[in-house]
Amino acid sequence: MTDFNTMQDALINCDPDKLVGLVNAALAENVPAVDILNKGLIAGMDIVGDKMENGDMFIPEVLMAAKAMGECVIILKPLLGEDESTRGGNVIIGTVKGDLHDIGKNLVSMMMESAGMTVHNIGVDIGPEDFVTQIKEKNAQIVCLSALLTTTMPMMKQTIDAIVEAGLRDQVKVMVGGAPVTQAFADEIGADGFAPDAGSAARFAKILVA
Amino acid sequence: MFEVIGERINTSRKKVQEAVASKDAQYIIEDVQKQQEAGATYIDVNAGARIGYETQDMQWLLNTIQPIATVPLTLDSPDPAVLEMAFQMVEKTPMINSISLEKERFDAMIPFLDGKDCKVIALCMDDSGMPGSADDIIARADTLVKELNTIGIGTESIYIDPLVQPISTDSNKGVMVLDAVRGIKTKYPEVHITGGLSNISYGLPQRKIINRTFVTLMMGAGMDSAIIDPLDEKIMGTIRTSDMLMSHDDFCMNYLKGVRAGTIFS
To answer: Any chain A CB within 8 A of the CB of B169?
Structure first.
């Protein structure tokens, strides 16, 4: 009998060798890959996200846990049905035009991927029209806008306005984040959500597409 | 001597924004005086956070600060029009914060800086984003120095900001910037190195010990200025002690003065 808790613990303790061993052992016992992914890895990363949100785990540990998970996903991917690996939600994430910061956005992207979502990280300095094009192309359910400068925060509003004008606002939920961004600002510009850190961003994204 | 650019007068700080919005001159004056007493050698003034009010906020801040300023000011804005107004208002030769290699910013700042008597902070940032290696930082610094020299700004008036990046996301980010500082100083011994320090500790607990240890290493590599909160006694104590150890404090006078005043302690 596979113990998913042990798998989650290996993830939380940032122990990739042990985790890969546990995943292979579970597969040898004919545990379905989708269960290993959802009940072991994604459930474990949910705990990692919570711990990050509470200040009990820090960025280097979260990166290591995500790396360990990534190694396991490579093993599991060929064994997963197409719908099983993409059912977590389809997300576009980018930093708005005029802003070149990418660290926070990449962390959010990584946590969302670890939460089982399909994330299209489209980069930095992305104009409103490019977000619109990408939403259409990727048929996204969530679009995440990042800005780290008070001077580029207004570009978040312009991007949301462009999404409204393109008639896509009912199709996508909009999340915003970045050091100077607040819940009040998110409300003011008509975003659906704001998250102060990568762990809560992933949790909130799951709620939005549930 | 290490130059401390006091970062507190910034409208993105809640209390400063409240003081600016309510025209509370006393709050601003006291804050600047405290920074000067603590050893700030420049006072940075940033009025950018209240969108749409930058010109009038900058004007009010400078009118408030100028009469009591004993050190020069660092005029902090991406907008050349705001800087031009601010430049006319200050008495001592100011420092401009900042130019970078991002095309839009560079093209806007060069005509403003051309022919002016000022110091300038030059960020190693270009349109491809943050630098990815020490060589990358050095190459960007090199371009900035050459371009600024061309419009009459001497190397000794340039403050290169190599852009400190979080070590939490990549364990090599400390060594990367330290190597870059050594490389820049080898090529241009007269250039200054400045910047914020706290980015190094982003995403880690107990950030202040990281910041303090890092400033010591950076000073060893050639950093001779930083944009910090001068009211943080511990980092100021570390900086002054390092300054003494690097032969910038004759007969250890500043160190001893700081100890007697109670601002330097073990």
So the answer is: yes
Determine the pLDDT at residue B51: 83
| Mutant choice from A57, A59, A111 vs B, greatest count of B C-beta within 10 A | A59
Structure tokens given for B173: 């980010």
Contact B166 A103 (CB under 8 A): yes
Considering all CA atoms of chain B, what is the largest pairwise distance in Å, rounded to the nearest integer?
Answer: 51
Whole-model pTM over 0.90: no
Residue A123, C-beta contacts closer than 8 angstroms, at least 6 positions apart: A94, A95, A102
B32-56 per-residue burial string, b: 16 or more CB within 10 A, e: under 16: beebbebbbbbbbbbbbbeeebbee
Has residue A86 got a pLDDT over 70? no
Contacts with B104 from chain A: Cβ below 8 Å: 98
Rounded CA-CA distance B122/B160 in Å is: 5
Compute the distance between CA of residue A189 and CA of residue A160 in angstroms, rounded to an integer: 8
At residue B49's C-alpha, the angle toward residues B102 and B195, to 5°, is 50
Does the pLDDT at position A135 exceed 60?
Answer: yes
Give the C-alpha distances (Å, rounded to integers) separating A107 from A9, A80, A202, B172, B229.
21, 25, 10, 18, 28
User: Taking an 8 Å Cβ-Cβ cutoff, which residues of chain A contact chain B?
Assistant: 55, 58-60, 63, 98, 100-103, 106-107, 124-125, 150-151, 153-154, 180
Tally Cβ neighbours within 10 Å of residue B239: 25
> Do the strands B119-126 and B158-161 form a parallel or antiparallel pair, or are they unpaired?
parallel
Candidates B12, B102, B205; nearest CB to A58: B205
pLDDT along chain B (266 residues), means of 10: 97 95 98 97 95 95 98 97 97 97 96 97 94 97 98 98 96 97 98 97 95 98 98 96 96 95 93
Contact A125 B127 (CB under 8 A): yes
Residues of A in contact with B130 (CB under 8 A): 100-102
CA distance A98 to chain B (A): 9
pLDDT tens digit string along A3-15?
899 999 999 999 9
